[in-house]
Amino acid sequence: MPHASGYFRTTYGQDTRLVDTRTQRVAAGAFICALIALPWLANPFVLDLANQTLLAVVGAVALMLLTGFAGQISLGHAGLMAAGAFCTGILSKELGASIWLTLPASAATGALLGVIFGLPSLRLRGLYLAVSTLALHFIVIYLGHEYETRRGFSTGIVIDPPRVFGWELVDGRAWYVVFLIAAGGTVLIALNWLRSRTGRAWRALHGREAVAEALGIHVPLYKLLAFVASSTLTAMLGCLFAYYRGFVSGEAFSLFLSIQYVAMVIIGGMGSIAGAVMGAVFVTLFPYGIEWLVGLVSEALPEMRGLQNAVFAINYAAFGLVMILFLVFEPQGLAGIWRRVQAYFLMWPFKQKPLSGGGK
């Protein structure tokens, strides 16, 4: 009796599993083991890069939910981070609040801002919506600067290290564990949201709002939910960022930071949580890779040592060039490249060839 060839999902339960094949389970297990072993094998510099990357994963996934899935443009990501960070700094400085209070307070602040600045999305679209979210950035930064000035914190708000279950978080390894839990939890929450009714509604909004409304989806409600979900996660990221850096200052949340998170979504691949993770890794490590290459060129060619003085300008130029290249030649981003690599190995050594001559 003939048997089906290939891998087929025959039940709804199989279709909603996050890891459903032996190869995926082995790969996921190896990846988790590598993440656990990293802080014990890495030097302080590499550990700091890993911590920065895990923080970026949280922000990239949050923006991917809003832009990559719900289709709502936002340039206020840095402003939301600043809101969470300033909320943490103010509560810590004025009330001596612990992280168990500042973290939920930052989440509540982000949710409130998500509602306030999500309301324009009910009537605005495209460039107009982007400008309205950009206003969020300038308003939050202005209010933060006003607080710093009036309280005399010219160099920023200094925050004491938080204590979690009696442990003071000062070591890079301890922070790595916290950030790994935060990034892993954010990814799992996002994946489960996308498998729910809310996630399906967001995908429909991204496709076409008129069609989504015709299907019975409450468009205004799910637009606001997208803003609230993304803003809450981003403000919590700002809280963790403030504790990790040990101080809060408006200069840390420039408009370029918002552009970087937009780049993570574009370079990673729109509409993919895995793409958000890959985009966060790429954009976070990209400047350090450019500095390393400039150093190599300066050592190999003494007459090019002047490049080290222009490394920041080179970083900006290279970053813009990479974004343009991805937009023009790889609109599906790193996630699209990864899917093609997977398809190649699944089909190897066979190749798919287009049919010609009427399918002969």
Structural write-up:
With 360 residues, the chain is an all-alpha fold. The protein has a single domain, classed as ABC transporter involved in vitamin B12 uptake, BtuC (Orthogonal Bundle), CATH 1.10.3470. Helix content is 72%, strand content 2%. The chain has 14 helices and four strands. The chain has helices at 12-15, 22-41, 44-69, 77-95, 99-118, 126-151, 172-194, 197-207, 209-214, 219-245, 255-268, 273-300, 311-329, 333-347; strands at residues 157-158, 163-164, 167-168, 247-248. The strands form two sheets. A two-stranded antiparallel ribbon has the order 1-4. It has a two-stranded antiparallel sheet with strand order 2-3. Helix 3 (44-69) packs across helix 11, helix 5 packs antiparallel against helix 10 and helix 12 (273-300) crosses helix 14 (333-347). The radius of gyration is 23 Å and the shape is globular. The two termini are 28 Å apart. 34% of the residues are buried. The mean pLDDT is 84.
* Residue-averaged pLDDT: 84
CATH class annotation:
Mainly Alpha
Tally of individual helices: 14
What characteristic shape results from the CA principal axes?
globular
Helical/strand content category:
mainly alpha
The name CATH uses for the topology is: ABC transporter involved in vitamin B12 uptake, BtuC
Order of helices and strands: HHHHHHEEEHHHHEHHHH
Q: How many strands appear in the DSSP assignment?
A: 4
Main beta sheet: strand number and arrangement? 2 strands, antiparallel
The percentage helix is over 70%
> What fraction of residues sit in β-strands?
under 5%
> How many structural units, i.e. domains?
1
Q: Distance N terminus to C terminus? A: 28 Å
